[in-house]
Amino acid sequence: MKALVYLEAENSIKEASLSAIEFSKNFCKEIYGFIVNSESGNKFVQKLYVLEVDRFIPKIIAKEIQKVIESEKIEYVFFGSTSSAIEVLSYLAGITNAIFFEDVEGYENGYFIKSIYSNKIIGSFKISYDGIKIIGIKPKSYNLAKPMYNSEIIKIKLENIKDDIELIEVKAKETKEIDVTEADIVVSGGRGLGSAENYHSLLKELIKVLNEKTGLKVALGASQAVVDAGWIDHSHQVGQTGKTVSPLLYFAIGISGAIQHLAGMRTSKYIIAINKDSEAPIFKVADYGIVADINIFLPELIEKIKSY
Amino acid sequence: MRILNIFKRVPDTYAEIKLSKDNSDIDKENLNYVIDPYGEYAMETSLRIKDKDSSIELVVLTIGPENSTELLRNALALGFDISYLIKYENYEKLSPLALSKIYIKFIEKYGPFDIIFLPKVDIDTNFHSICGYLAGYLNINFITSITTAEIVDNHAIVERETSMGKEKLKIKTPCILSHDKAPYEIRLASLKGIMLSKKKPINIIELSELEIKIEEHIIRNTLRLPPQRKGVKFLNNADELIKVLKEEIKIL
Ligand SMILES: Cc1cc2nc3c(=O)[nH]c(=O)nc-3n(C[C@H](O)[C@H](O)[C@H](O)COP(=O)(O)OP(=O)(O)OC[C@H]3O[C@@H](n4cnc5c(N)ncnc54)[C@H](O)[C@@H]3O)c2cc1C
After folding, report:
1. How confident is the model at residue A175, as a pLDDT?
2. Residue B12 pLDDT > 90
């Protein structure tokens, strides 16, 4: 049986895509890749389809994937569950009458494991469908594939793409930020930081020293309270109406630990909470807690890590 | 112009979710159900569109048991004109394919709609695919995870956040849009709205009326709670924390 893995790259291939390749090995021996405007990934699959386009239009990309599915007689499509991949592949599901199942965390005895009810419950699911199955792997929940091929690259070039959707304006982020879902360490701050200035200066300083000393990817996170206050934009929000993260280490700094916040971070490997209130609910999920005033404790911690 | 908002009836986000005795389902006793938060933001966006042009007809749809009508009544009080409930008790166990097909039948029967809004994710089942699925099946333009929308002629101007930054896009109607959190607050029903809502229709549709056979391709088996966390160890100072980073978490 053949699997097609939809790959994504930013400079190099995304880890979420590598997990999807590794996951696909549970089902198929022959594993092909499909990627847009990049040749990353050819070391990880047996054949790589590269679509070259001048505009990224989900509909058009989905239709090109459909052609590959038909010509190669693909039964399974795998992908790393990112919002951009979901946009393309959910449309593909619509045009191919496929089953779509995203955010899968594991595969146990024939059952797919996936969190539901805002990560409050873990479900196990059996898929029995004769048609195409499109399955997304939740980032950071599965091993990464290792390079093992030097595959054939098949290029598809599309020019002068027309679409009914027009991009009017893009406000690019000033600096390239690491997304909270992709980081090894997330440093999140809440209302307890007191002000936008404090939030940015203290947390960014901590992020900088952690990155320097550990070499790991460190991202800035936020509670809804500080997003609503306008201290930072919504792309940093962790929780029910923000992003779900499961990094190696999550810092909750001045965050009370409301149930909607926990929904987005409780699967982190380690959680460290800093809060002046020893009764704060965040301590119920934390592995390590420090009961202290942020304004005194954080500068001291930063200095100590710096001189470590 | 007609706009359709589809929302999901979900457990209140403040609720702790427990399991039934045999672990086959969640314990629904004493669980309070609400309109899903993304569906709620989408409804606010539709109401804002109608604030500017009262000739627009706002239709709202959900699927669920009979008492879902309470949530539809609330939507009518906010300013929606017509509401529909597709009555189906076991809706939380539907696969995204089955759920999409039900919505498609509804759209074919009760449409056309110029814009269809959906939540960016159904927070109960964690499905993100319904918007793309409907668009693909119906061959209609779509954009996922928008944060605002306005109507200009026969186009919608929408904004959204991507990993690159903020985008503003213009999309031709008819279109399907899935809604993320909006940058504005959600309104509450006014007293007048509540009075008016009593005269507005809540139409209940039996699944059989949609002439659809539910096939279960994704079968939900047992449920479990996430592993308990170990419990907190309180540390006294920065030196102790650095020791943990070094010796326990091993990143320094
Ligand atoms: C539908 C819905 C969806 C939601 N989605 C999300 C979501 O996605 N993400 C999210 O985060 N929230 C979400 N919320 C909101 C959530 O309920 C909380 O309101 C929010 O998480 C609180 O943010 P906070 O912890 O920063 O603020 P607070 O609850 O105000 O907590 C601040 C904490 O800082 C501590 N503190 C204050 N000063 C200091 C100091 N000097 N030193 C040390 N500690 C200090 C306090 O003890 C307190 O514990 C949602 C709510 C709803 C209803």
Report:
1. 75
2. yes
Residues sharing a CB contact under 8 Å with residue B243, sequence separation 6 or more, in sequence order: none
pLDDT at residue A164, rounded to an integer: 87
What percent of chain A is modeled with pLDDT above 70?
100
Whether residue B58 lies inside any domain: the answer is yes
Position B215 in a domain: yes
Domains of chain A plus CATH, in order, are 2-157 (3.40.50.620), 180-306 (3.40.50.1220)
Q: Do the Cβ atoms of A94 and B127 come within 8 Å? A: no
pLDDT bracket for residue B215 (50, 70, 90): confident
* CA-atom Rg of chain A in angstroms: 21
d(CA B218, CA A217): 36
Enumerate helices (H) and strands (E) in chain B, giving the number of each.
Answer: 6, 13
Instruction: Inform me whether the C-beta atom of residue B32 falls under 8 Å from chain A C-beta atoms.
Output: no
Q: Which of A61, A65, A91 to mutate to test the interface with B (most CBs of B within 10 A)?
A: A91
B159 lies in which domain range?
Answer: 2-224
Q: Which of A256, A234, A236, A240 is nearest to B37 (CA)?
A: A240
Number of domains within chain B? 1
ipTM field: 0.96
Domain membership of residue B33 (yes or no) is: yes
Give the pLDDT confidence score for residue B113 in this predicted structure. 98
- Digit-coded pLDDT (tens) for B66-75: 999 999 999 9
Report the C-alpha gap between B86 and A210 in whole angstroms: 52
Q: Which contacts of A286-291 are long-range, i.e. CB under 8 A and separated by 24 or more positions?
A: A286/A252, A286/B229, A286/B232, A287/B229, A287/B230, A287/B232, A287/B233, A288/B232, A288/B233, A288/B234, A288/B235, A288/B241, A288/B244, A289/B232, A289/B233, A289/B234, A289/B235, A290/B234, A290/B235, A290/B236, A290/B241, A291/B234
* CB burial readout A110-131, b (16+ within 10 A) else e: ebbbbbbbbbbbbbbbebebee
For B22-57, the pLDDT digits (tens) are: 999 999 999 999 999 999 999 999 999 999 999 999
Tokens 């792309």 sit on residue:
A235
Stated pTM of the model: 0.95
Place of tokens 């308990």: B228
State what percent of residues in chain A have pLDDT above 90: 93
Indicate the helix (H) or strand (E) that contains A153.
Answer: strand A152-157
Helix (H, G, I), strand (E, B), or coil: what is residue A146? coil
Supply the CATH number for residue B163's domain: 3.40.50.620
Quick check: is B238 in a domain?
no
Half-sphere exposure of A211 (CA within 13 A, CB side): 15
Q: Which pLDDT score is estimated for A174?
A: 75
Interface of A with B in 212-271 (CB under 8 A): 213-214, 216, 233-235, 237, 240-242, 248-249, 259-260, 263, 266-267, 270-271
* Residue of A195, A231, A255 to mutate, ligand 1, most atoms within 8 A of C-beta: A255
Å from CA of A226 to ligand 1 middle: 8
Closest Cα in chain B, distance from residue A50 (Å): 22
Residue B220, pLDDT > 90, answer: yes
CA of A170 relative to ligand 1 center, distance in Å: 30
